[in-house]
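Appendix C reproduces, verbatim, an entry submitted by the partner laboratory led by Prof. M.T., so that reviewers can inspect both the input and the predicted structure.
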Amino acid sequence: MKAAELFVRCLEEEGVQYVFGVPGEENADLAMALQDSDINFVLTRHEQGAAFMADVYGRLTGEPGVCLGTLGPGATNLVTGVADANLDRAPIIAITGQADIQRQHKEGHQFMDVVGMFEPITKWTTPIIHPTNIPEVVRKAFKLAKAEKPGACHIELPEDIARAEVSGYRPITPQRPRRPVPDDKVIGQAWDMIRQAKRPVILAGNGTIRKRASQQLRRFCDATGIGVMTTFMGKGAVARDAPYSLFTVGLQARDLIWRAMHDSDLVITLGYDLIEYHPQMWNPHGDKPIVHMDFLPAEVDEHYGVGVEVVGDLAHALWMLTERAERDNVSVDTAFYEKTHRLMQEDIAEHADDDSQSALKPQKVLWDVREAMGPRDILLSDVGAHKMWIARYYHCDEPNTCIISNGFASMGIALPGAVGAKLAHPDSNVLAICGDGGFLMNVQDLETARRLNLPIVVMIWEDGGYGLIKWKQDNTFGRHTDLDFGNPDFVALAEAFDCIGVRVERSADLPDVLKTAFAADRPTVITLPIDYRENKKLTGRLGNIESTL
């Protein structure tokens, strides 16, 4: 068989169900081998969209999403989505074609060093230089992509290697190794620090929503009552209605949750990445006692002085702590957590009955969205001012039900990501919330969603500008640069893609529009004018919050 066919058999052995991408001349043999396989090839309208689909699919399933591009511009178009997956800790495999090895020593049409380009944005990148290497290369890429912390791997398949004949080789069967567990002695040291604290808080990052960690975290909190705040990408680690839920921290201003962190006497970080919410923001003097619990050792940072470092499988480490909590007495100030929880609940519900007749308030929109979404439905946030509102006002019952890119923070992820989410969880409602800027970055893959008959819902918060940049420039400089732009008629644009287009002008109409959209048989695009005057009000209000409870 051809080497390309062996490559596809290796993908089948890994359990790959979808490959997202755009074929070209240099990966034609691989494309034909996919056509003859049980793997579904999802033709996208842009390679960036393909990478975002694989990114979200991998994040939601825990299994590497796979995207495909050809050489040259096909490979460069994959870069943003691959980098996003790598910094957002989503397992992904990027496959690119390449020119014949025989012409790589000289100038050639569309030839460039693709492996070198992918090196800084992946965990591992390699060319296949001989057909017999394919089983080992594919197995290694999938193994590394899934290993903590998950991320991106890249494989380059030159066209002459892909069409070469190979015999006597077969895929390597994946093995599912158990992760190493922490030493019992270090768990005891961590438990001693926790027992001595009166107001410890848990900062749960994106590592907490993988595997069984969320389940074990809830057991631990039920046993101790310790409050949990999540990063943007840790949403759903604990249920939003749990008395120990402190909701989401990370806005770059004072907040009720930030205040709870300020008043704490111990911070327990779980699966926490510094790339999400830098410790300088919550530990400005570097004097907070910290217990670091993660799959990997702590990053070195002057504001992240770790007292005890618990390295190993996070779920198992939490289980070991819970065993101690159920055996020993622990006394924490539960009223401290309950007050923060109550104040945030009141804040979130403040605009529940708003009936604006013009621009809609972000708080009210997200209240209606949360009411319309079930506990296992999936919301994807694009990047823009709306991301900050979603982080603060939209909270979850289950892990992986609110997807926010906050490691690489890529605009344009939500629409194609919604395609990956719907394929991963076809029985869940899927809603992508975008700004008008982010929506138009990958609008072409609305056609992909329609072609696949995926009834995703896309909501556009329309303000005619790059609202988040405007918000931050206003806060920093008291003014902003020229950030306004024009928009098409989004209803007509949706209909041009044979999708449903709706414009909502009144808050009172949104609940019924959402209900209808989730019951539709095709993609729906909902556009609403958003009142971003609320940005400045929120900044002012949070800036005036007292520093202590």
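The chain has a mean pLDDT of 93. Additional entries are available on request from the coordinating office.
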